[in-house]
Amino acid sequence: MTVIATENLTKRYPRVTALDRLTMEIAPGVTGLVGANGAGKSTLIKILLGLSPASEGTASVLGMDVSTDGGAIRERVGYMPEHDCLPPDVSATEFVVHMARMSGLPATAARERTADTLRHVGLYEERYRPIGGYSTGMKQRVKLAQALVHDPRLVLLDEPTNGLDPVGRDDMLGLIRRVHTDFGISVLVTSHLLGELERTCDHVVVIDGGKLLRSSATADFTQRTATLAVEVTDTDAHPDGTGALRTALAGAGLTVAPATAGGEGLPGAGHVVLVEASDDTVYDTVRDAVAELGLGLVRMEQRRHRIAEVFQTSGTTADAASTAAAATTGTAATTATTTGTTQKGGGTDAA
Ligand SMILES: Nc1ncnc2c1ncn2[C@@H]1O[C@H](COP(=O)(O)OP(=O)(O)OP(=O)(O)O)[C@@H](O)[C@H]1O
């Protein structure tokens, strides 16, 4: 089943092609749409809502054609816009009830659904205060609530973490995940930050300059370049156990990450050796090397790379890549053409 499908979707503005022959399919679940500022994310959302006509190509949402069924699509789809668009003088309850009524809910149902939805987004206590006094995070939650209040089958969330601090971002991402797990609503969430999508999304679509670079299950991004993390103990004979192991493994012909790259973010960081697991024999080589050195093997596990690392250039740190969309999408084009992606078209000429 497909919730969103596009075929050669193109949008030309007088001076820029915002979407360029975009062909993709999105299944139910939580999907991240990632791209730098100006990549075409908001333009795609407006077309999917039937609010802006495509220049060429087709798109369907929940099986409905965006060019003819815009009204029916908007009945079943929730939309959280990117920019601040909330009236400051009314309360969250008044605003969300109004949006529910606009979506066609009767008065009683609108009030009940509003209370439920504001509870879900964590605004129940504050629901009668004017929105103008809310923090950015609270305003984002009101925008999420109004997108959910009419119990849609799909929500399109445009940069919901914009303007939030790291804690606020984590909270919002958790909420978004629960929109799907608790209510079964499919989610398309845009972001210019690759890193924040990997914990939230089942699937990630990357666009750049209006073209599709890659569309893959999140697990495909994170498994593709698996690395083995090996943690060992020190011994009297080898007071620097990891150093000794690193030397032994390099001597055995394995690709070993430099000491400075070892295990950041992992328990036991600093005592972890990262080895490229090119094939299954690597496990045996590591086991034999540890035994020969007489070290204690604490753990040996396949490390899942972060999505950002897939887009990393040499000399660019993962953190820089995950926080700088320009850096990630700039290199993603190369990745897309070399890794055999699932995209149907429009992406291979992006480099
Ligand atoms: N109404 C418009 N008229 C002319 N150009 C537009 C219009 N809307 C968007 N664009 C241009 O189309 C391109 C894609 O814009 P879009 O807003 O879709 O990108 P985006 O990925 O959502 O980025 P952002 O997160 O910064 O909004 C940009 O170059 C933008 O300047």
TrEMBL record:
Belongs to the ABC transporter superfamily. Pfam families: ABC_tran (PF00005). InterPro entries: AAA+_ATPase (IPR003593), ABC_transporter-like_ATP-bd (IPR003439), P-loop_NTPase (IPR027417). It comes from the Bacteria. PANTHER family: ABC TRANSPORTER, ATP-BINDING PROTEIN. Keywords: ATP-binding, Nucleotide-binding, Transport. PROSITE patterns: ABC_TRANSPORTER_2. Residues 4-234 form the ABC transporter domain. Residues 326-351 are annotated as: Disordered. This is ATP-binding cassette domain-containing protein. GO terms for molecular function: ATP binding; ATP hydrolysis activity. CDD domains: ABC_DR_subfamily_A. Signal peptide: none annotated. Residues 326-342 have a biased composition (Low complexity).
